[in-house]
Every structure is written in C-alpha cells, then in structure tokens.
Design goal:
380 residues, 8-stranded mixed β-sheet, 29% helix
C-alpha cells in the first residue's frame, strides 16, 4: 500500500467549488471531490503553522500546553514510526518554517526529505542592493528585513517554474514516478501556498479581471493581521491575488491527479488533501488569523480522502473530524500499525467507509488564546 498526502497552508474552504464557491477557477478541486470523499465537518485543532504540524506527528493537541515549537524528544512521530516499521516516509516541502528555530526537528523524522526555498521572507537570496521600490499597502509596504527579503525573492521568481510551489510539486511527481512500482511508502507533499503573500504569475491573475482590473493601484497581496482599514478596491484586489494563487494550487493538484490516473494508482494508493487552517480576506472586517475569534472561515477546513480499502468516492461525510490529530492514527492504521497510547486522534477508516462518528466534540485554538469546543454545529 502507498499513501500521498497533499498539504496546503491557509486554504479557504469557502473559496473552493466543492464547498459551494461559484467564482474561483479551481476545476481540479472539483475533480478531486469526484474522486474522493468530501468532509463537511472538518475542524482545526492547534493553530497556526507549526503547532498544527506537531499535531500531525504526535496525534494529540499541541495548543493546550505548548506554543509554536519543535518536536520534543519525548514526542511520538507518525513519519518516524512508519520509517521504523519499514515504510519509507518522504517529505517534500517549500514550507521554510520547518528549517527555522522552533521548527527544525520535524524533517529529520522522515526517512528522506527535500526542501525548496523562496517562500515569503525566506532568507535564501543574498543581495546587498535594495530591491526596486513599489507603491504598496499592508505588509507589502513594510520595511522590515523580512518584508525586504520578500521583495528580493520575487525578483528571481518571474516565471512559474521558478516558484517554490512549482518546484515542490515537480519533485513530488518525480518521486511518484520513481517509486510507483514499489510498495510501502508515504509521501507528504506540502506547499506553503496559498499562504500570504499571494504572489503568482500574470496568467493566474488574468483569471480574475474584475478583481485585478486596475494595474496602477497600490499593490496589496500581503495584508496585515487585524482589522480591515483599506478601501474596498484594495480589499477586492487582495482577494483577487489570493484567488489567483488558489488557481495555481489547483493546477498543481491537477498534476497529481493526472499522475494517479496515468499510473492507475487508485487501487492501492491513499490520497489525502487538507490544510492547517483558513484565512480571513475581509470577512468580519478582518484580515488573516490569530488576532480574532476562530470564525468558521478559519476553523472549518476543506478535507478530502480517497481510501482504496473502502473505495468510496464522490460522496460527502458529516462526522466531526480533526485532520491534524486524526491523520497520524489514520496513516498508521492504513499501514497496519497501531497508534501509541499518547495519541488522542482517531483513525478515520470507519468514517470513510460508512460515516461512522469518531467523536462527539472537538477542541481547538491557539496557545494562550481562546479554547474553543464544537459539536460540528455550534462553537463555544
């Protein structure tokens, strides 16, 4: 058996066609829903980036006792458990927080790993000269070293093939083709996109002419966290840039679906597509995440699963699930392994097969912030 986990960052459920959006260009997400199960009651657990990934490794909530941080020596790690059991676990990512202080103990849990640089303010290109000045608003206009580095990085990503997301998915296709005839492997294919800044090429921006019609307007594809203070035209521009990057993510997802079709992989390969959380783009007059209540746009996430053991596709599931803590036990179960006693997440095999509930309620939040409880309908 084989498994492919495609992970996006800050992917908005309410902007995907399978969840009712009728204006974004994302045909491959619609195609994905036809080939997998679509989960309607999927919720976050620990927020944001690295806490969610610690959830994934350990199968238990991180936010109740730890802020952003590395895996601890005493932590369980699903990819390491697979590796030790003879299942090759491979990480391909452009998510640079894995390689900073506070996130640097994750990649070593995998049997092998690859990293592609350049997202956001990743300090990967050494340039002394200042980048060209731009008329910008929001975080695009800030002068910190982080935001300056983003402007430098963009100079070297003028073509789609130069973007980290493209390189990440190309490496994923190479891995799949190289190992398609082999058994017992797990691929975690993870991109930072569509996390801000929402930078992509003109061909994706041209899909949204009504939102990105004024090319002379100040640039806003990286909003500040907090209240919306920008005029409506700039808010719409930022939504257009997010949608453009979403469409690029959709194109790369289509590459994976094409490869699974071409290799007839559906009989023995699990496919999981998920995200760590959503992102506010002016809803509730707010930008981003963390500094506000965990509204449904942030906490109720898109989640798709193809499990070849049950073979169910094109259906929806209503059971309350939390991918960040449930995927560890689910993956172990898929490869015939048992979760540790410390793992509080649940295998989703029964949910996939027959929508059998695994919990009555779920907790989620961020360390030092709100603790939320939901039954899938109401949130306290």
């Amino acid at each position: 058996m084989k498994a492919i986990m495609v992970m996006f960052d800050s992917l908005n459920r309410h902007m995907l066609p399978p969840y009712g959006c009728d204006w974004t260009h994302a045909p491959n997400f619609q195609r994905l829903a036809e080939k997998t199960l679509t989960f309607d009651t999927s919720y976050v657990c620990s927020m944001p980036c690295m806490p969610a990934r610690r959830d994934l490794h350990t199968g238990r909530p991180n936010f109740l006792h730890r802020s952003w941080g590395p895996l601890e020596p005493f932590d369980d790690s699903m990819p390491r458990m697979l590796k030790e059991a003879g299942v090759s676990s491979h990480l391909i990512t452009d998510h640079y927080h894995y390689f900073e202080a506070g996130g640097s103990t994750y990649h070593g849990q995998y049997a092998t790993w690859e990293f592609f640089r350049g997202q956001e303010g990743d300090p990967c290109i050494g340039q002394v000269a200042d980048p060209p000045a731009v008329d910008a608003r929001g975080s695009n206009a800030l002068d910190s070293p982080w935001h300056r580095q983003d402007r430098i990085n963009r100079q070297y990503m003028q073509r789609e093939e130069d973007q980290p997301q493209t390189k990440t998915f190309k490496a994923g296709l190479d891995f799949i083709r190289r190992n398609q005839a082999e058994d017992n492997w797990f691929l975690q294919l993870e991109t930072f996109d569509p996390h801000e800044p929402f930078f992509t090429q003109r061909q994706y921006q041209d899909l949204y002419p009504e939102l990105l019609k004024d090319r002379s307007a100040p640039l806003l594809d990286w909003p500040k966290y907090g209240e919306v203070t920008e005029e409506r035209e700039l808010v719409e521009q930022c939504r257009g840039h997010y949608a453009a990057l979403l469409s690029m993510c959709d194109a790369r997802l289509g590459d994976i679906l094409d490869e699974m079709d071409r290799g007839n992989m559906w009989d023995d390969t699990m496919l999981i597509v998920w995200t760590d959380h959503g992102f506010l783009l002016g809803e509730h007059d707010l930008w981003a995440k963390i500094q506000m209540p965990w509204y449904r746009e942030l906490s109720n996430t898109p989640f798709f699963v193809w499990d070849p053991r049950c073979g169910k596709a094109g259906e929806r599931r209503q059971s309350l699930v939390q991918p960040s803590i449930d995927l560890g036990p689910t993956m172990l179960d898929f490869f015939g392994l048992k979760p540790t006693s410390d793992m509080l997440g649940k295998s989703l095999a029964g949910v996939c097969a027959g929508d059998t509930p695994v919990r009555e309620a779920a907790m989620f939040g961020n360390h030092g912030g709100q603790v939320n409880v939901t039954d899938g309908r109401y949130v306290y």
